[in-house]
Design goal:
Two copies of one chain form a homodimer. Chain A has two domains: 83 residues, Winged helix-like DNA-binding domain superfamily/Winged helix DNA-binding domain (Arc Repressor Mutant, subunit A); 84 residues. Chain A starts with a helix and ends in a 10-residue tail after the last helix. Helix content of chain A is 59%, strand content 7%. The first copy, chain A, has a three-stranded antiparallel β-sheet. At the A-B interface, helix 1, helix 4, helix 5, helix 6 and helix 7 of A face helix 1, helix 4, helix 5, helix 6 and helix 7 of B. The first copy, chain A, binds a DNA duplex (28 and 28 nucleotides) through helix 2 and helix 3.
Chain lengths: 188, 188
DNA sequence: CGCCGCATGTAATTAGTTACATGATTGT
DNA sequence: ACAATCATGTAACTAATTACATGCGGCG
């Protein structure tokens, strides 16, 4: 299960609570691995029980107390070993593309709307990643080794968004040409 | 569950057996949705029970008999309705990128190998999709509407592979620069 | 004779989603 | 008063993976 390893990866240089991890999985790491808070809290308990993580209660004033987790020596070793193992290439699943296989005059307008949502989403992601890049990864050559790996992942995310956005323009044009001519603009 | 709808989509113009569907999910449709034969056979039984598919036993000589499935009227309607609904954007999961977050001099050579495997895989995919495109989607403007949707999906697959391959070159160069200088080539 | 392709499944387990729950504090 | 953010969970369910099973025909 890679979720466990994604969590350990997020804990490489910070000690974080489940809540903080959940937010991390919504942003940076989240492009490559999604997880709900329910999954994360459970994984944290499992990992602690296996001795790969250790926890510490942090009482807080004005906020609920939290439990922060950090890697143990065993955790670091397990993570290192995992990286050296083989990984199967989890192919992606995307129902929007399946929907495209069903294109017709009746659903073209709807697909165009879904596509517009995706464009918006990808555009926001791209802007975010470009900001992160400008701030923290401007000169990749002068980064410490591990940060260079993160830079490469970030770069993959950027390229991916760019490609999707470019494709979406082509797709939009083709969809527009399929929508019946009545009042093709603003079809609910 | 989109698997059910992916299966129905594959049955839009052909009546197929579970085995044939499994192969289809390994090639064309498979870029957007992966499924094992166990999943597919189960889904087929479920869909038939719901009245969305109908089956027919086909005895064969020299081969085991098979059961082919086709869409019912209800199945077509259900599929049409599904396309018009909203779909959440199933974010992708890829442990190779998680591994990149763990880059070090110790694992750079290994990651480079994994990357090479991916490159090979993506290269084969790309060649396959380009062949399909050249054979069946050379002039997208003159295709019937539904085929244009499939063309767009295919195009997304092509662009995606191209992007990954281009990224992989950059990544490979950076990884190479991280591998310790002893005998950096062909480190097992 | 043993392996590969065809064809279809069962069973057990793991992973992930959805719905619901609690309770404090800060902002409108 | 009401919603939002912080913080952590349980329970029920659906989806996916992994392991195992069966049997025929053709190929080397």
């Amino acid at each position: 299960m890679a979720l466990n390893h994604a969590i350990m990866t997020a804990l490489l240089d910070d000690r974080l609570s489940g809540y903080e991890l959940t937010k991390a999985f919504d942003t940076s790491l989240g492009f490559f691995w999604k997880a709900s808070h329910q999954q994360i809290y459970k994984a944290l308990r499992d990992l602690e029980q296996q001795g790969l993580l250790e926890s510490e209660d942090v009482p807080q004033a004005g906020k609920p107390d939290k439990v922060i987790y950090g890697l143990t020596e065993g955790g670091r070793e397990a993570l290192d070993a995992w990286v050296l193992g083989d990984s199967k290439a989890t192919e992606s699943k995307d129902d929007m593309f399946v929907k495209f296989y069903n294109l017709s005059a009746d659903n073209a307008a709807h697909l165009r709307e879904e596509l517009a949502q995706r464009r918006q989403h990808d555009g926001e992601r791209l802007a975010l990643y470009r900001r992160i890049r400008a701030r923290h990864y401007a000169q990749p050559e002068s980064l410490p080794v591990r940060r260079r790996g993160i830079y490469l992942a970030l770069l993959a995310g950027i390229r991916h968004c760019e490609t999707r956005l470019a494709w979406a323009e082509e797709a939009d044009a083709l969809l527009a040409s399929v929508i019946p001519e009545r009042q093709s603009a603003s079809a609910r």
